[in-house]
Amino acid sequence: MNDVPRGGGWRTVGSGGESTEQAAPPAAPAGAAPRTVIEARAILVGSGLDITALGATERTGGAPLVLELVGSLTGTALPGGGRGVAVLYRSGAAVFFDVTPAGIAEALRQIAPRVRQPLAEAERDTEVLEIAVDPAGRELIEGNTLLLADVTMEKLQIVADILAKSVSLAHHERAVERQFERVEPFAADLGRSGRGGRELLRQIGSTLLAEHQVVAGARVDDTPELLWDHPELERLWGRLRDEFEIRERSRALHDKLALVSRTAETALDLLHNTRSLRLEWAVVGLIVCEILLTLLQWGLGVAGHGG
Q1: CA neighbor of 66 nearest in space, from 113, 12, 27
Q2: Is residue 18 a contact partner of residue 11, using CB atoms and an 8 Å limit?
Q3: Nearest CA-CA partner of 188 in 177, 198, 178, 200
Q4: Range 158-176 average pLDDT
Q5: What is the pLDDT of residues 217-252, one digit of tens each?
Q6: Among the listed ranges 58-72, 161-175, 262-276, which one has the minimum average pLDDT value?
Q7: DSSP bridge partners of 129
Q8: Which of 10, 82, 212, 265 is most buried, taking the most CB atoms under 10 A from its CB?
Q9: What angle is formed at CA 47 by the lines to CA 87 and CA 242, rounded to 5 degrees?
Q10: So where are the chain's domains?
Q11: Rounded to whole angstroms, what are the CA distances from 243 to 36, 189, 289, 291?
Q12: CA 126/CA 41 separation, integer angstroms
């Protein structure tokens, strides 16, 4: 693993759940009660995360980086022997399982140099889901609690995939609402605002950038690569995707982005047409002035000859 600080006590985990590097986490405390509930917390820390620099050189496509952390809420080992799990995504999302607030803060501090366009703490979107383990129960979602028969690294990655997409969608949904608020006054005040064209061009650029981040960055429409090797988890992934309305929110976001883009482009066309019309009237005015000057000179010439 390259350039990964050792102070936090973590190790990378392969996409199938196997450990690829050991960092000697402490043993579970003697007599610890068996875990019944795990907290999953997803945080969007920035517009992107360089997980290759954090030790993910062997991963392909959009595969996340899985880290086992020290500092869990319960002190009971998760699959692979860790005391908490972090799943990091290139989109800038980090998903933590059974990690204390102090452990999350330390992990975020260590990955901060690899975050592109980091968000202030107040601007970070967060999603929290409780995972209850019931070996005798059915796997379903009750309110904000996901019931699982058992906890495996693969299931945690499936949950992380949905939570990461949810916080990315939430961030872009708020950004699109702000773009609506900015485009509307400029579109309504084109005739009186000399800077309307520049602002509209800026909005069109922002819309295109947001659409690129949703499609190429967050990959909210993609199926996780893990399902190719574990098709038995597709039902769990589909259930979570429907619960968090990932497809519906993605379609609505694309529709809003398209509407913002069309509104800005239409307003920009109107602005150009208005300026073209003004230019045409200016040309007509110059021609009329030239004709009047010619007639005046001709009239003065005739009067001079007559005298």
Answers
A1: 12
A2: no
A3: 200
A4: 91
A5: 456 778 888 999 999 999 999 999 999 999 998 888
A6: 262-276
A7: 40
A8: 10
A9: 60
A10: 11-152, 166-300
A11: 22, 42, 71, 74
A12: 7
